[in-house]
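Figure S7 source data.
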Amino acid sequence: MTRILSGIKPTGHLTLGNYLGALRRWVDEDQHQAEALFCVVDLHALTVEHDPARVRRLSRQAATLMLAAGLDPARCTVFVQSHVDEHARLSYLLECVAVDGEMRRMIQYKEKSARARSAGQGVRLSLLTYPVLMAADILAYRADEVPVGDDQAQHVELTRDLAERFNQRYGRTFVVPKATHPAVAARVMDLQNPLDKMGKSHEATAGIIYLLDEPDAIARKLRRAVTDSEPGVSYDREARPGVANLLEILSSCTGELPEKLAEAYDGGGALKAAVAEAVVELLRPLRARHAELSADQGFVDGVLREGAARARAVARPTVDAAYAAIGLLPPA
Ligand code: TYM
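Tokens for the predicted tryptophanyl-5'AMP complex:
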């Protein structure tokens, strides 16, 4: 059976991008079709300036939202990365396979290190090695597929390289995984700056729809979305990124192709209103379920405890095999 692994980093409140690019597919498809594991990758949240209490709060919130969105612990494994030591254990071995040049070439490293420098902060070494830990997340489980948004494609490509290199040098240990992306909304853009990804850790929040936003906040953000001065509605990602983003969001909500939807609206105002209605309806059940689950933290904690035990049992044999393969003496 195909095995799937993916994760979300608790660096901010989850956004519509996280939902349309990743989480919704985990719920609607992956957990039904494969042996699936989903984690809150909290160790990754320590790679940039962070507030310990906030990371803890956001980790619990992310797990609660994953369940509220419909991940079913009877069908898949939901856990927190730091609860399973195998991730950090394997990450070190992979650091001995990776070279620094390939880390420095990562787009996200370039962007985030530049941001840290311009804020006068040091660039944490863990930001450079971030993709190695992500590779460990995936390879420890011998995952075949990694369902992610477009922005993670380069990291999964690197994961493939590291798996192949390790297998070649030390004997076949890892499965070489592949990324899968949704057909539309693989990169939801910021509503205020449609050339930039809608990112949960961005400081300017007017262009970001959060999964827990109230309906009127969603409608307001969409009403104010930046488009262009062209008349009418047409789907052209290059020339009309703002309009294209709205069409893709609507397409992802309704299942209709963006090109088709463009024909149905003659003005930006009507399009924005339709997107607002579709997004509010899409998120309504999730918000309601989140409110219920938030009142039952014992349930969420129980899911995470059991999830970590299951994840550990899957990861340990592979990580132990990697330790042996690379030349470490097994404990007597
Ligand atoms: P993160 O936490 O930034 O995002 C979680 C998932 O949401 C997708 N995503 C988007 N999709 C479409 N449009 C957007 N605007 C958008 N923003 C985010 C991401 O592609 C991702 O699928 N490095 C990863 C977390 C990670 C991971 C892993 C993922 C760590 N280890 C192992 C898969 C497997 C990250 O920062 O995702």
